[in-house]
Amino acid sequence: MGGLACVSACASAALAASSVGLVETSIGEAHAQIRGATRPLAAGADIFVGDLVSTSATARLVMLLGGATRVRLGANTRLRVDKFLSSAGGELTFDSGAVVVDHEEKAGPIDLRLRSPFGLIAVRGTRFFAGPSNGTFGVFVERGIVDFTAGGVTLRLTAGEGTEVKRPGDKPTAVRRWPFERANDAMLSTY
């Protein structure tokens, strides 16, 4: 599709959707795809319900959703905004890569669900990581509380705790405190 045709198709697709946030920062190549139209993402770009946001191997992206929820994407990450309401929360589908979700405490609790092939993360207002860690899929909570469901088991994680899953469908390991180095590496993977 030529440049002008893509701009037109992307604008039409974007107008049909409702903006739920924007890109705060973008380093490297990142795109959003909605209804078959793909557009590049740079600082200030709108994020819409239905967007499939993806980053390249050298990219990092920070989205602000609803004014109080920052979603940081690391390299080679794919995340779809299924639905999002600024005061209520929403659902995101996370296919690959590393994500840090940071909901401002002063904004009050939020009901946010992050789905992945490895499990479901239910958020109530928090700062947490999900993605590759030590050769597994890890979930680590820096602040707040998340419930992680995988392999038919639900675990509650609080600040400083993490768990992991080796393969989709597996049960998560027992909740334990993550060493500083592992937690730090995980959180920094989206910077």
From TrEMBL:
Signal sequence region: 1-16
InterPro entries in the record: FecR
Keyword Flavoprotein attributed: no
Keywords (A to Z) from UniProt: Signal
Residue stretches making up the FecR protein domain: 52-146
Annotated protein name in UniProt: Iron dicitrate transport regulator FecR
Organism of provenance: Methylocella silvestris
